[in-house]
Amino acid sequence: EKNIWGPFLVVAPASVLNNWADEVSRFCPDLKTLPYWGGLQERTILRKNINPKRLYR
Question: Alpha-carbon torsion 6, 53, 30, 35, what sign?
């Protein structure tokens, strides 16, 4: 409604991270999500493979 676009950061415990992503997708389908977590190697790989078109509208 207010036409405000991110990026936004939601910090959540790893145990509920995927649940948060599912809820965002369900209630805000136009908002793109990227669960970003893991050890150093996993995060490095994730950063290398991020497709910016998936993140921003």
Answer: negative
Q: Is 70 exceeded by the pLDDT of residue 14?
A: yes
Nearest to 31 by CA among 2, 8, 1: 8
Mean pLDDT of the chain: 83
How many Cβ atoms from other residues are within 10 Å of residue 11's Cβ?
Answer: 6
For every residue of 26-56, DSSP letters joined together read: HH-TTS------S-HHHHHHHHHT--HHHH-
How far is the C-alpha of 13 from the C-alpha of 50, rounded, in Å? 22
Predicted confidence band of residue 1 (pLDDT cuts 50, 70, 90):
low
The CB density around residue 26, as the number of other CB atoms within 10 Å, is 8
